[in-house]
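in:
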């Protein structure tokens, strides 16, 4: 998990912006379910239906069996150097966290818990 207060400040956003990210948390939990049931290579079929460039990049790295440290480096580089703020930055942080947990073999429930934590202003019943 990224623990950078300056980055967290840049990712701060309104309740409405946080609520708009609930679907990505649900999507990431779904991807985790696919990976758990059918293996990482099954994510290749899922990748075709994903529009988000950052998520597609991370999935491709996982599908290609890139070492976890290298996946983290690539995703972190995008987060730190591609000038995102607010909702978009928070979305990338959530995606990064989920992808690293999926790659590590975490349960879908744990992926949801560890990504929804970034949306502290959203009622947990939304998930």
């Amino acid at each position: 998990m990224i623990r950078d207060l300056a980055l967290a400040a840049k990712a701060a956003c309104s309740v409405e912006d946080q609520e708009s990210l609930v679907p990505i948390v649900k999507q990431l939990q779904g991807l985790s379910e696919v990976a758990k049931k059918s293996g990482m290579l099954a994510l290749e079929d899922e990748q075709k239906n994903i529009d988000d460039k950052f998520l597609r990049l991370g999935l491709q790295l996982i599908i290609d069996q890139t070492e976890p440290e290298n996946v983290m480096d690539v995703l972190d580089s995008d987060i730190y150097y591609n000038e995102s703020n607010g909702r978009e930055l928070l979305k990338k942080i959530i995606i990064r966290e989920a992808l690293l947990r999926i790659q590590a073999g975490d349960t879908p429930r744990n992926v949801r818990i560890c990504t929804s934590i970034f949306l502290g202003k959203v009622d947990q019943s939304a998930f």
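note: The chain has a mean pLDDT of 93.
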